[in-house]
Amino acid sequence: MMKKLLGIVVLGLLWCNPIYAKILNLPNNIKLDVPNNFVYSELSQNIFEGIDGWDEYFGSDSIMYYIGTKGSVEFSIDILEDPEKYLQPIMKKLEKKKNFSEKQMIKFIGTEVKKIAKRKKYESVAFVIQGGKSISELINENDDFKEFMIEVNEMTTQELKNEMESEKIDFINELNDGLGDLKEFYKFNKIKLSKDNNNNPYLILNYKASMPPLKTIGQWFLFIYENKPFFMGIDCMECTKLKNISLIKMTEPMFNSKKNVSSENNDLIKNLNALNELYKSGALTKEEFENAKKKLLN
After folding, report:
1. Which terminus of the chain has fewer CB atoms gathered within 10 Å of its CB, N or C?
2. Distance between CA atoms of residues 100 and 103, nearest Å
């Protein structure tokens, strides 16, 4: 647990007043509006590797990038590849604090991590993950995802907003319960499910994290671009508001450069929905329905 916690804590950004100054061009037509001194690096491993359901929705071939200042990206990759290098010295110091309570231990670890970040001149880092599976594949392979896409496609943006307003408290509580051991340090506090200009759904989650004296606020952003699922994340260390942090703003160049490839997905969802209605009405037998669905998905 300590290794995972350390890896997550050091992702906290000092990005409290970013100045968006250039378009950063990543592979696969990923364009991001970032500060002028930002660079990117593709990772050899995924920080979410091993999490239940990850491969199901993003695939083992997903690609992940760190984005930030050169020193920050290098430091973050170093921690990801060899957390023991930073964790062991902290734990050795902690072993000498024999009478520490759990609260004192957490505060000590947070203080040490903050010192390391300062010594390494760590400024900021974000991540962006492009899924290895296409949305079409997900619809074909995952019945729950297919039903979700069909349901969302039938709703207007306002209807979707109203639906989320009535259920967001339960949804946030369920998310927080799913954090397990990390629930003590992390807490989701805001959620938004809406549609972009291409009628594709997107999800934004805000959270707070606290490991005194470290305190961060952050945002996760899940969206669809060029028929692929994307997952982005950003934190701000010692910030009180997210007004200067916007993943939607960072991704504007991607969506403004050209229309997202979504009409094909929308047509697929509409046709699947029409098949479902015909089957429910009795116009199609189960065998006819399954054959038609298979032909459509293929």
Report:
1. C
2. 8
Handedness of CA 180, 63, 74, 220 (dihedral sign): negative
- The reported pTM is 0.76
The pLDDT tens digits for 234-247 are 877 666 666 556 78
Tracing tokens 């990206």 back to the chain, one arrives at 73
Give per-residue pLDDT as tens, 136-157: 899 888 888 888 888 888 888 8
Residues 70 and 39: beta-carbon distance below 8 Å: yes
Instruction: Identify the burial level of 8 via C-beta atoms within 10 angstroms of its C-beta, where 0-12 means exposed, 13-18 middle and 19 or more buried.
Output: middle
**Residue 92: is it exposed, middle or buried by C-beta count within 10 angstroms (0-12/13-18/19+)?**
exposed
- Phi (first) and psi of residue 234, to 5 degrees: -155, 140
Measured from the Cβ of residue 67, the count of other Cβ atoms closer than 10 Å reads: 25
Task: Give the highest mean pLDDT range of 196-205, 211-220, 239-248.
Answer: 196-205
